[in-house]
Structure formats: C-alpha cells, structure tokens
Amino acid sequence: MTTLADRTLPIKPSVTLAIAAKAGKLRSEGVDVVNFSAGEPDFDTPERIKAAAVEALKRGMTKYTDVKGIEPLRKAIAEKYQREYGLAYRKDEVLVSCGAKHSLYNLFQAAVNPGDEVLIPAPYWVSYSDMALLAGGVPKIIQTTEATDFRIRAQQLADTLSPRTRVFVLNSPCNPTGASYDKDELLAIAKVIDKHKCLIIADDIYEKIVYDAFQVHNLVQLSPSLRDRTIIVNGVSKTYAMTGWRIGYALGSEDIISAAAKIQSQSTSNPTSIAQAAALEAIGGPQDDVAMMVGEFQKRRNVIVERLNAIDGIHCLKPQGAFYVFPNISAFIGKTANRKKLGSPCDVADYLLEEAKVAAVPGEDFGSKAHIRLSYATSRENIEEGCRRMRDALGKIR
Ligand SMILES: *Cc1c(COP(=O)(O)O)cnc(C)c1O
C-alpha cells in the first residue's frame, strides 16, 4: 500500500458524494431526477462577460500574469469596495485566486499554525473545517439552530473565543442556511472580537444574492478597528454565474495578503488570464444581469419555502440570502420507510432519491443531524415538481 502523508488522514470523504454519485447514475440510466443538490446558479454567464473573455483571447492575453492578478482587476475590486462600502484598499491589499475556495485555502495556509483554533459557526460550508485541518488547525464549531435563525449570538462567540483562537470564520449570507447578519448583529460581533486578537475571515461570496431589500453590511465598515485583521473573501462564481471560470479574491492588510500570494506563487501562480479579463468585465461593467438573476431567485425562494412548509413534518425558515433552503426533517428520523429505518439526514436524502427521484444534500456535511439542503438554483417548474414528489414520498413514512 502507498504511504500517504499524515495530513490526508483527518480529511473525511464527503457523505454528499455517495448521494451525488447515485443521482448521477440514475440520470445516466434515463431516470428523470429533480436536482436540488446544485451548489451553483443555473443561469448561463451573461453575454457581456463572455464577450470580454473572447476579446481577451483574440487580443492574445494568453500568457502568465502577475501572480496576484492583473492590475486592472485588482483595482476594480478595490474600487468596488470603495464604492459600495466606503472601504479603501490599495491594489497590493488585493489577491486574485482560482476561486474563492482557493483564496480561503491560501489564507488558512498563511494564517493558521498547528494547534491554532478556528471558530466556525454551524451549519457551515463544507470546506472550512477541512481547510483548517489541512493547515494543522483545530476546528471549533459554534452550533446554531432555527431558534436564532441559524445566526450565532455575540455571547456564544464570547464564550467560545480563547487565547488559542486564531481565526473566526463568518459567512453571511450563509451556505447552507441562507442566514444573513444584519447591522446590529455585526456590531455586536465586532464588539466581542475587538477584545481579542484573532483574525476574521469574512466569506462574502453571496453578498449580492439577498432578498426583500435586505441591507448587507460589512464588518470592517462597521468597525474600522478590525480592518487590519479582517480578510474579506469574495468572488464572481455565485453573483455572475461564473463557477467554472474560477476567479475569487481576498482583501486585507498587506502582510497577510502577501503571505497568501507567496503560497499561491508556489502552487498555481496566477489564475487563468482570460478568466481574469472576464471577471474585470463582471465587476466593472453594468450590473443589470445580477438584478435579473436575484429577482428570479427571490421568486423561487418564495415558492419553495411555501411548498415545503405545506408538507407534514417539514419546517423550513425563509432565508434572506444565497440560493438554498435548509428544511428541518427531524420529524422523519427514527421512522421507517420502505422497511428501512431512517437514522439520519443521509438516510432521508437517500430515501428521497430512491422513492421520489429528488436529489438533496444531507445535513451531515454541513454539521447538522436534523436538516437537508435544497438548492433552488433550478426552474420554478422543477421546484413545483420536486416538492410534489417530496410530499408524496414523505407522506408514506410511518
Ligand atoms: C461556492 C462557495 C465558495 C467558493 O466559491 P468559488 O467558486 O471557489 O469562488 C466559497 N464559500 C461559500 C460559502 C460557497 O458557497
């Protein structure tokens, strides 16, 4: 047997993969599966953005760029934060990477020492804890429930912070819950953090995907004293339907950004040149396409929340952002379906796939034993059909 590095050992294979593989197999056999498992917008990348990439290609923009990303893009990112939040970042305080996931990976590598604690509110996006582990860190989970709309209370944070805390991760709007922190909550969190020395990683990837005129605020804007130890992570994947282009970025003080850039320089170097040209158009160009997509997501959210709550045994909050719902399905756990006992969200997701041909992501990967995640980045017809199928299948559980 091959000898593997110790660092691979704590990284757990995702339970989601088994369901995804099964759904893929069913589809390849011609079964009509309603797919609620996508982690990306179903829209195509807007034409203006594609055209910018084609233009860059024709211009011969096919060579290495600056490791940190082309200057016009880093400037456009800094200008965006100036324009929208009144925050001033120099271009050397911006690092463009191969997706926000890569930005986060570089930052964990640059900031976390073995034994350092990384505070992660749950339910959480799947990769934070594994990235922390890969850097030798110790993930510390702060649990939340529907009782606080899946948002941590400042007091919970105060109780969990310790001298060993190195990083606090805040993802708002949140994947998988859609939970979004308002101004007062952010101020309360800032007040607690102010008494500590830890870094804050603010994962703002769903910043533009918010509903009902929800006002997005930024921790640094509300609490300027946190600027030097907050790193803002964002990207074009979710806002502009550009998941395949792989462009994300980080803004923060020059020391941490330079350290992350050094790590990037010894792994991927610059992100794809043409994709950077596309991201420049995405961020710097007209934003009408974003409003169109968000408007459609909001209609879908309204439909899916209403249909799910009409199903006996399901309780689903109405999220303020992102494109996921995180219904509570604990009423079905411990029950029997198709002569099998449902012991976990994974079993429920498995049953939904087999019985209803509906693909959902079980909550375990996000740190929950009571929920499943449904993405509504799919047509309203699919949402109606999928919810009908779920109602019928769940109605058979005794
Ligand atoms: C999708 C996602 C990312 C990563 O996006 P990239 O495609 O790598 O830019 C990061 N954080 C959260 C919460 C996400 O949902």
User: How many helices?
Assistant: 13
Oligomer: single chain
Instruction: Classify the fold: give the CATH topology of the largest domain.
Output: Aspartate Aminotransferase, domain 2
Tell me the CATH superfamily of the largest domain: Type I PLP-dependent aspartate aminotransferase-like (Major domain)
Q: Approximately how much helix is present in the residues? A: 25-40%
Indicate the overall shape: globular
CATH class of the largest domain: Alpha Beta
Structural class: alpha/beta
Tally of distinct domains = 2
Q: Assess the beta-strand content as a share of residues.
A: 5-15%
Q: Which consecutive residue ranges, at least 5 long each, have pLDDT under 50?
A: none
Distance between the termini: 46 Å
Radius of gyration, Cα only, in angstroms?
21 Å
Query: How do the helices and strands follow one another from N- to C-terminus?
Result: HEHHEHEHEHEHEHEEHHHEEEHEEEH
**How many β-strand runs?**
14
- Based on the coordinates given, report the CATH architecture of the largest domain: 3-Layer(aba) Sandwich
Question: Would you mind describing this structure in some detail?
Answer:
With 398 residues, the chain is α/β, with parallel strands linked by helices. The protein folds into two domains: 6-44 and 289-394, Aspartate Aminotransferase, domain 1; 47-284, 3-Layer(aba) Sandwich (Aspartate Aminotransferase, domain 2). Helix content is 39%, strand content 14%. It contains 13 helices and 14 strands. Strands 2-8-7-6-5-3-4 form a seven-stranded mixed beta sheet, with helices on both faces. β10 and β11 form a beta hairpin. α6 packs parallel to α7. The longest helix has 22 residues, at 288-309. The termini are far apart. The model has no long low-confidence stretch (mean pLDDT 96). Bound molecules: pyridoxal-5'-phosphate.
